[in-house]
């Protein structure tokens, strides 16, 4: 304790330099832990995009591709599932519920999903959270739509507003379904998932807007009005994908095998958790690159501390010599410099943690509203404690170099004058 007290007083005498060194360490620690916490929360948020669903079913292709268009609304399906096949899947013995998804249209850049009421009953995200309406109700009429939170907020829609859907992922004027406008019936609460960026309509509505279309374009000379479509049979002919829930987890592989071997058409059933893990592995390179960059920032902070300690050594030769003259042994000098390094590291880590919490407290609402990331402000996790322990160890190693040089200084070297 006496050494630490002496180290503290020594640093206090050089407080301006010590403060700058401490600040660089604090910034490095805040950046490293911030990146680590964002990485963990982003991974958890990514994995919780879809929960409670046992299987995702689509046309045969790649599992990641199926996950992208069925859950993240990215890309397009290579093929559809016939309505008859979907009904056969729904009738399998261990299937408890199914949710059909029909993709292919958009509204001002946001994807449109045709589905049914089961979507709002069974779709879960996060920790088995269900979708909830912020305003209005689920679509009941043929030309009603339910908007995700981001769609309503970014486009400024309110209940009863009218919207026009466009054919395809773009919003090209000649590919719009202008003759069949929709009314906003409900707006969902934010979920931090792709649901926020989705316009939901009924499966029958998807059929209705394409009654007089063929091969992605209106049929010349044929026009069916919005009211006329209400009298037509709007049973879907095909859907893009389906979410499947089972009555027991143990039946997952049995049902998956039955769907993958479905004889009527080539289908693919994937486990959402496995596909999410595969997709995360693909995009995890950026995550690791960010971590490496933050590690280099920490290295720069440690080099700054080393530079500050080495620079002060020459100016403190007389101080060291006086310490030796009053009975301090080389080991005491070594411990003094190590104590200064320890004080700088511990105070830098504490300041870095405080800075990180302050920044997260300010940025938390922005991260949640913009990216759907909920960053917890609790104590460091086990992984973060391990990083901090590694930092303390690295600080000790960095401090040992100037401590060793001070240890080697001879008493006569400190008392003699250099010309």
From TrEMBL:
<feature type="transmembrane region" description="Helical">
    <location>
        <begin position="334"/>
        <end position="367"/>
    </location>
</feature>
<dbReference type="Pfam" id="PF12704">
    <property type="entry name" value="MacB_PCD"/>
</dbReference>
<dbReference type="InterPro" id="IPR051125">
    <property type="entry name" value="ABC-4/HrtB_transporter"/>
</dbReference>
<feature type="domain" description="ABC3 transporter permease C-terminal">
    <location>
        <begin position="292"/>
        <end position="410"/>
    </location>
</feature>
<dbReference type="InterPro" id="IPR025857">
    <property type="entry name" value="MacB_PCD"/>
</dbReference>
<dbReference type="Pfam" id="PF02687">
    <property type="entry name" value="FtsX"/>
</dbReference>
<feature type="domain" description="MacB-like periplasmic core">
    <location>
        <begin position="19"/>
        <end position="210"/>
    </location>
</feature>
<keyword id="KW-1003">Cell membrane</keyword>
<dbReference type="InterPro" id="IPR003838">
    <property type="entry name" value="ABC3_permease_C"/>
</dbReference>
<feature type="transmembrane region" description="Helical">
    <location>
        <begin position="289"/>
        <end position="313"/>
    </location>
</feature>
<keyword id="KW-0812">Transmembrane</keyword>
<feature type="transmembrane region" description="Helical">
    <location>
        <begin position="387"/>
        <end position="407"/>
    </location>
</feature>
<protein>
    <submittedName>
        <fullName>Acidobacterial duplicated orphan permease</fullName>
    </submittedName>
</protein>
<keyword id="KW-0472">Membrane</keyword>
<keyword id="KW-1133">Transmembrane helix</keyword>
